[in-house]
Write a structure and sequence with these properties.
mainly alpha; about 100 residues; globular; two-stranded antiparallel sheet
Length: about 100
């Protein structure tokens, strides 16, 4: 275990006791091979923390507003899809237009 997964397990234990519907919305973790296949789609290596996170759980079927703004832990395939859509959207802007957002 790592500090990250230890902390996530403590959160999950609390959720299972206090908000089981939230705990039940988390999907089973992925294998390293499944995550590597996702890397093939996006064309770059993901950090070890992302591997640990998605091996722990593959996101949640729900978005929750424990904090503002609300936080969504997207399933891996959906996170890749959203990332690619964002990159496609950004690609339509010139460098000068993008500078306005910095």
């Amino acid at each position: 275990m790592t500090a990250l997964t230890d902390a996530l397990d403590r959160i999950m234990n609390w959720l299972q006791i206090n908000q089981p519907e939230v705990a039940n919305s988390f999907l089973p973790g992925l294998t390293a091979e499944e995550i590597r296949a996702g890397e093939e789609k996006i064309g770059f290596k993901l950090p070890e923390e992302i591997y640990k996170l998605y091996q722990w759980r593959n996101g949640s079927t729900e978005a929750y507003s424990f904090f503002l703004p609300s936080i969504a832990f997207l399933p891996f395939d959906e996170a890749i899809r959203v990332s690619q859509e964002d990159q496609d959207f950004i690609a339509h802007f010139s460098e000068e237009e993008l500078e306005q957002f910095k």
